Amino acid sequence: MIVFCAGMVRSGSTLQYNIVREIAELSGGQGEGYTDHITPNSYPDHWWFDNRLHIVKTHEVTHHVIRQKFCYTYRDIRDVAASLKQKSWLPLRAYTKYIDESLRNFERAKAAGGLIIRYEDLFGDRRQSIIEHAEWLQSPITDMQIAEIETHTYISYTKATVSTLRAKLHIGRKFDPQTLRHPDHISKFGGVPGAWREVLSKRQQREMNERYKGWLGENGYS
Q1: Which domains does the chain have, with CATH numbers?
Q2: What DSSP state is assigned to residue 169?
Q3: Which residues contact 153 (CB under 8 A, 6 or more apart)?
Q4: 30-34 and 2-5: which strand pairing?
Q5: Is the pTM of this model over 0.85?
Q6: What are the pLDDT digits (tens) for 171-183?
């Protein structure tokens, strides 16, 4: 069976993928990497129906995704904008269009009834998040296994693996095929919620607060 980790971009989707991947591996499942533009032909036929868990990361929330078991992580969209700004993935004028599409995906995910997790909870209580994902997957897990997954997904461990990846760039590797982490995966703020207050200009903060006031309030972001 395919399990999709379909989180909002720059919102802990890789963290969630690795939590789910490591839980699945305890019972013989495995991570299958990242996919965009998902169709029924994107994967071998047996992946859709067999008893083995095939964990796939995507940022799409389409009918192919929500027909399967899926989880989704989201965060304060001001932090999404701040992360995009730090990575320079988009010109500033394109942020709102990109975020608007992310929010449409968020609403589709929420309506479809997958496991929806706030990034702030993933970041703040890793152990409880691991337990919640294991229960959702109906995968038994021991305290020792929880502790091991905690270790593998903490920022300090992630930074170490990213440093190792940087050393491999001379052979052309752009990301780690198992964890999907890339060399600049961790920002200088270490993923701490609320970094938007330092990264976004006062004007950008006002624009974000005005444009997304309703969504921010509805989802507990002041």
Answers
A1: 2-218 (3.40.50.300)
A2: G
A3: 15, 18, 19, 22, 126
A4: unpaired
A5: yes
A6: 455 777 788 877 6
